[in-house]
Write a structure and sequence with these properties.
The chain is an all-alpha fold. It has one domain (2-489). The chain has 20 helices and 2 strands. The chain has helices at 2-14, 17-35, 41-48, 57-82, 91-102, 106-139, 144-161, 166-180, 206-224, 243-265, 272-285, 298-321, 327-338, 347-350, 352-373, 377-383, 388-407, 410-428, 434-456, 468-493, and strands at residues 183-184, 191-192. A two-stranded antiparallel ribbon has the order 1-2. A hairpin with a 6-residue loop joins strand 1 and strand 2 (191-192). Helix 2 packs parallel to helix 4, helix 3 packs antiparallel against helix 4 and helix 4 (57-82) runs parallel beside helix 15. It starts with a helix and ends in an 11-residue tail after the last helix. Mean pLDDT is 80; it is low at 496-504.
Length: 504
């Protein structure tokens, strides 16, 4: 009951004209960046973070939450109309969604994505509202070694799940951990990896790193592979669904929500696994198996619901444990810190009014997204015709402006260029960017928890697995490691598809 009363107070704060305006701007911007190929909510947040320091904490966080939810939906438009998912979580939406569009059912595909996003987002946000305080209360009893075990599990899970190669994911994580170690050691006072550059003694600002790897790296990559011919975009009208479409979609929305939220909430989450599982479940349970592979509406409804439910699930881990499991959550964590708000077990106690206003605004943002996206589907589709050179030139401009505004330090621009080239190189060789960002943000946290645990135990390493929770986390880590090794060995042993064909 206490949570319900605090939620009502949160609604009172979120429903002020100023905060409603920020929520509207957030979902509009989020949908905008989600629609455009190659621009996701993480990049948008990284670009906007330096430009929002003049806002109060609640307004800025409500804006960012709106961008997060809007970006998760906007990617479905690109996937359906262009068959070009901007993020890995939208891949399964593209499978059946683009086939529906090619069959003249683009409006129905966009409608089931929009309404499914609203249904899943609303249910998952309500689950977030009532589970996050409980998880935070439980987390208050965790020790340093428990948090260290959680970070290790998160590192390995994010690195092996994202991308096609666990080795590349771990390499990306190693790069992020190395960048996160730059600066002065808090215990010994020695400089680490500064190469004699005094301006690196305080470390590299996380915002500069995120902007460089996401925005600059992506812009350079797109420029290097820019197609001169305009993309083939399928025209669409206002989103709508027939009675039969509703009947086939609503069970898929509920099943997708049931899969997406828990996978997002675990400290190894993300939307990739639940969207794949949702697609597989709908394909198995459908009464119209002949339509799968030719444009089945359940194949859009389920994965899109799982995608948006996982976004709310990710907020559980972020708010109650202070651990981000997606790129967008990592940038949001940095936004919290910019306003001296520390997500974790004491968040609801120390910053309750702001957090409850944020949670209430998520429900408001969900409703705003539905109102925006159903009638404006044709408008969002026209955004895909924006000239790419102008778009990515603007991204580079705002990247430089935002990075300089963080500390007003010209050295940050040089660092931006160097790390931007690193981001381009990572894309060139298939290294996912998300593990690097997680490593940058969680690396110092993990190091601090490790040292704290060892200091309390006088250097006894056995303390790291001295609690039931840490043993459970390491057991999950061992299981994940065994599954990854099995997958790698199985793929290695399988012959190439054309290995049996004669050459020449």
């Amino acid at each position: 009951m206490d949570s319900f009363s605090q939620l009502l107070d949160g609604f009172a704060a979120a429903a002020t004209p100023a905060n409603l305006l920020w929520a509207l701007i957030g979902v509009t911007l989020g949908t905008f960046v989600g629609v455009l190929p190659g621009i996701g909510p993480a990049m948008a947040l990284a670009l906007l973070l330096p430009l929002t320091y003049s806002l109060d904490a609640s307004g800025a966080l409500i804006l960012f939450a709106g961008i997060y939810y809007g970006g998760m939906y906007g990617g479905s438009t690109t996937s359906i109309l262009l068959n070009a998912p901007g993020e890995s979580s939208s891949v399964m939406t593209a499978v059946e969604g683009n086939l529906m569009a090619k069959a003249g059912r683009a409006s129905q595909a966009l409608a089931t994505a929009a309404i499914g996003s609203f249904v899943a987002g609303t249910i998952a946000t309500l689950l977030l509202i009532f589970t996050a305080p409980v998880v935070a209360h439980f987390a208050a009893g965790l020790k340093s070694q428990d948090y260290f075990a959680i970070t290790l599990l998160s590192f390995f899970a994010v690195s092996t799940v994202l991308g096609g190669s666990p080795i590349r994911g771990i390499a990306s994580l190693a790069l992020g951990l190395m960048i996160g170690l730059i600066g002065i050691d808090s215990v010994t006072g020695q400089q680490r990896l500064t190469f004699g550059v005094d301006s690196l003694a305080t470390g590299i600002d996380t915002v500069v790193i995120a902007v460089a790897l996401f925005a600059v790296g992506e812009a350079l990559w797109i420029a290097a592979h820019l197609r001169h011919s305009p993309p083939d975009i399928i025209p669409t009208g206002s989103a709508w669904m027939s009675k039969s479409d509703w009947k086939r979609s609503w069970p898929a929305w509920l099943r997708g929500t049931a899969l997406g939220f828990p996978f997002g909430a675990i400290p190894a989450g993300g939307a990739e696994i639940p969207t794949f599982l949702s697609y597989a479940a709908e394909k198995k349970l459908t009464k119209h198996p002949e339509e799968f592979g030719h444009g089945a509406i359940e194949g859009v409804a389920g994965p899109e619901a799982a995608n948006n439910a996982s976004a709310a699930g990710t907020m559980v881990t972020l708010l109650s444990l202070g651990i981000p499991t997606t790129a967008t959550a990592a940038v949001m964590l940095e936004a919290f810190k910019r306003y001296n708000i520390q997500p974790g077990p004491l968040l609801f106690e120390n910053s309750g009014p702001i957090v409850w206003a944020l949670l209430a605004s998520l429900l408001i943002a969900n409703l705003l997204l539905l109102v925006l996206n159903l009638p404006l589907a044709p408008v969002w589709a026209k955004l895909l015709q924006l000239p790419r050179p102008y778009l990515y030139a603007g991204i580079l401009f705002f990247s430089i402006l935002g990075s300089y505004s963080v500390n007003a330090n010209p050295t940050d621009i040089l660092i931006l260029v160097i790390l931007g080239l690193l981001g381009f190189t990572m894309r060139r060789y298939g290294l996912p960017v998300v593990p690097a960002i997680i490593g940058v943000i969680l690396g110092p946290v993990s190091e601090g928890k490790l040292r704290q645990a060892l200091q309390v135990s006088n250097g006894d390493w056995s303390t790291l697995w001295g609690t039931a929770f840490s043993i459970g986390a390491y057991t999950l880590l061992a299981g994940l490691l065994g599954w990854t090794l099995f997958k790698v060995l199985r793929n290695h042993d399988q012959p190439a598809p054309d290995a049996h064909l004669p050459h020449g």
